Amino acid sequence: MGTWGRSGGGEVRGWSGVKSLGRELVGFAVVGSCAYVADLGIFVWLRGPAGWDPIAAKSLSFLAGCTVAYVGNALGTYRRAVVEVSRVRQYGVFFVVNVAGALVQLLCIAVSHYGLGLTSQRADTVSGAGVGMMLATALRFWGTRTLVFRAATPVRRARTVREGRLGSWTG
User: Could you give the residue ranges of the DSSP H alpha helices within 48-129?
Assistant: First the structure.
């Protein structure tokens, strides 16, 4: 029959792999939603009652949202991942992936607004918060699973143990 699901080499195998990918997507979405709420809530509070300027408020709220997303993914979605680098380095890569996602959203607005001449507030919202958010989320999901937690998947670790490169008494 057909092959589905994710194996250690990145290919998809079996229904259990599809279910695993589904759980990973749901976990990633839940964590992302929590990070979004933290980002938005902190931004609104800093801009309103705290009286911060918008750039400083958004910078701090973005950092807080990234931190919530990293902790949620590290302790939730990818909790079974074997960490082969320091958590600080892992967070740094995660932060860069999230900045790349933010740049994708800005690029979508720039193309729509300045390149295509769609200058209404609705067009900016659709391109940034609609199309841009979907593309940025896809980039963040790919980057999180392949760049941040890539070397730490249980499948890859199990294959390494079977091949005798890790945990073997022969070295």
Answer: 54-72, 87-110, 121-125
